[in-house]
């Protein structure tokens, strides 16, 4: 048996007439004649098999069936309009600038880009890999639409803290670092200051009265991983982007977790920026879940 199908055009006339409390005004608003509107309402009632409007004095009121229909009709129209709006936005050309820490780049960025391009294939996406201070400055100057940074306590007007991840002491898997590191001071591989992980490492070692020295500094995470792989020292970072040939080192002072924050350059982001922000949040949640399951 063929199921009846509502005509959305007829439902829009019905909803508009109820909202204006006048089907004559609805006809004018929708660019139709009053006779055409009357024909649509008659068609609607014939399809349902019962009146949706009843006379009340010189006007019309909704019947119980009409009240129920009104609620459903509004939802159908909202869904219809939302679909067309999404499709129009999807085809909208433009550009979007996104900045993030290098830690997130290798294993995190590619999945976000793949999902984003599926929704907004015509939006040009520019990605900037930089450290916290530079990313925050670019957000402040509106040279970035979004920036994913570590939570260093810096406040920006449009920032959302998305979560946190533990920091770990990291060493080479195949190098007997701990035995070699019994000799003082402890060699560290770090970014140049200021660096939130560098500060956390030195504060934890100072609190535990463990002498340390900066054995090597690198401007990139890749350089840090290379130096640790070579056995030049330990570093303090998160598991995000951790190469498989490096490992978490136990027996050193505990360090706190590190939060990550998504910054926007305004309170009214474009639909593309909102979509990218949602993808970033989802990807971080998925990554946190994988780390939890791997423990």
TrEMBL record:
Transmembrane in keyword set: no
Annotated GO MF terms: DNA binding; DNA-binding transcription factor activity
Top-rank taxon: Bacteria
Alphabetized SUPFAM superfamilies for the sequence: Periplasmic binding protein-like II, Winged helix' DNA-binding domain
Keyword check for Transcription: yes
InterPro entries attached to this UniProt entry: LTTR, LysR_HTH_N, LysR_subst-bd, WH-like_DNA-bd_sf, WH_DNA-bd_sf
Parts of the chain that traverse the membrane: none
Pfam families: HTH_1 (PF00126), LysR_substrate (PF03466)
The HTH lysR-type domain, residue ranges: 6-63
Keywords: DNA-binding, Transcription, Transcription regulation
Listed PANTHER family: HTH-TYPE TRANSCRIPTIONAL REGULATOR LRHA-RELATED, TRANSCRIPTIONAL REGULATOR
Family: Belongs to the LysR transcriptional regulatory family.
Listed name of the protein: LysR family transcriptional regulator
Taxonomic lineage: Bacteria, Pseudomonadati, Pseudomonadota, Gammaproteobacteria, Pseudomonadales
């Amino acid at each position: 048996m063929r199921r009846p199908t509502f005509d959305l055009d007829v439902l829009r006339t019905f909803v508009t007439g109820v909202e204006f409390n006048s089907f004559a005004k609805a006809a004018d608003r929708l660019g139709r004649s009053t006779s055409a509107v009357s024909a649509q309402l008659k068609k609607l009632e014939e399809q349902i098999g019962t009146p949706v409007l009843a006379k009340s004095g010189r006007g019309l009121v909704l019947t119980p069936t009409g009240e129920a229909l009104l609620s459903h009709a509004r939802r159908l129209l909202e869904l219809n309009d939302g679909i067309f709006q999404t499709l129009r936005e999807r085809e909208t050309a433009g550009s979007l600038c996104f900045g993030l820490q290098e830690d997130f780049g290798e294993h995190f960025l590619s999945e976000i880009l793949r999902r984003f391009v599926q929704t907004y294939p015509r939006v040009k996406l520019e990605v900037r890999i930089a450290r916290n201070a530079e990313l925050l400055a670019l957000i402040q100057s509106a040279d970035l639409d979004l920036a994913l940074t570590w939570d260093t306590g810096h406040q920006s007007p449009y920032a959302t803290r998305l979560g946190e991840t533990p920091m770990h002491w990291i060493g080479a898997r195949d190098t007997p670092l701990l035995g070699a590191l019994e000799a003082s001071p402890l060699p560290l591989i770090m970014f140049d200051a200021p660096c939130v992980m560098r500060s956390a490492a030195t504060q934890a070692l100072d609190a535990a009265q463990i002498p340390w020295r900066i054995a090597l500094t690198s401007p990139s995470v890749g350089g840090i991983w290379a130096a640790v792989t070579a056995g030049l020292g330990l570093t303090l970072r998160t598991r995000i982007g951790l190469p498989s040939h490096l490992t978490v080192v136990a027996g050193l002072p505990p360090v706190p977790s590190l939060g990550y924050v998504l910054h926007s350059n305004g309170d009214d982001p474009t639909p593309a920026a909102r979509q990218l922000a949602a993808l970033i949040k989802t990807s971080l949640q998925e990554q946190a879940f994988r780390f939890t399951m791997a423990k």
